Amino acid sequence: MEKIKRLSKLFFNMVYISSFTFGGGFVIVSIMKKKFVDELHWIEEDEMLDYVAISQSSPGAIAVNCAILVGTKIGGFPGMLTAVAGTILPPIVILSVIAMFYKAFAENTYVNMMLRGMSAGVAAVVIDVAVSLCIKETSKKNVLNIILMAAAFIAAFVFKINVIYIIIVAAVIGLVGALINRKEKKNVID
User: Fold this and answer.
1) Which residues contact 98 (CB under 8 A, 6 or more apart)?
2) Per-residue model confidence as pLDDT tens digits over 6-40
3) Would you say the pTM of this structure is higher than 0.85?
4) In 10 A of CB 86, how many CB atoms?
5) CA-CA distances (angstroms) from residue 8 to 17, 29, 71, 91, 162?
6) Buried residues in 55-68 as b, exposed as e (16+ CB within 10 A)
7) DSSP for 113-163?
8) For residues 16 and 28, is the Cβ–Cβ distance under 8 A?
9) 20 contacts: CB under 8 Å, gap ≥ 6
C-alpha cells in the first residue's frame, strides 16, 4: 500500500512538473531537483547532478531520460514507468490540442507575445541551473573539474564545437581521472 502511495505521488508530481515547465529538459530537471531533492528528500543532490549529466549525454529528451533515472531510484521498474508516464502525458495532451487548433494559435498575437515572455523566463531558469551547477562544482575545489568546465564552455561558446564531441571528451577525461584516483587510493591502502 505504501509503495502505491509513493508511486501515485511520483506520478502526480511528474504530471505537475511536466505540465507547468516550458523550455525543455534543463527547466524540468531544475524543477525535479527542487521537488525530489529539496522538498521530498527522495534523492541526494550529488545523485541528482549525476542524473542530469547522464540524461544530458544520453540520446533522447533530457526530461524523459531524467524521469527514467529518478523513477528507477524512487520505485524501481514500476517507478520508472510511472515517472515516464507522468512526464510524457502533459506534452502529448498539449501538443494534441495545439495540433488541432494550430492555425488559430499560429496567427494569434497574444499567444505569440505570451510565448516570447515565457522564453525570457525559461532563459532565467536555465541560467539559474547553470550558475548553481557551476558554484557546486567550483566549491569542491577539484582543479580538473574546474579546468574541464572552463574548457567545455570555451569550446562550445567560442569555437562552436559540437556538444557531442565535448561530452565525449569530457567523459573520457572524467573516466581517466577516476581511474587515476582509484589507483592512487589503492596505493595508499596497500
Assistant:
1) 105
2) 999 999 999 999 988 776 667 887 888 889 999 99
3) no
4) 23
5) 14, 20, 12, 19, 40
6) bebeeebbbbbbbb
7) HHHHHHHHHHHHHHHHHHHHHHHHHHHTT-HHHHHHHHHHHHHHHTS---H
8) no
9) none
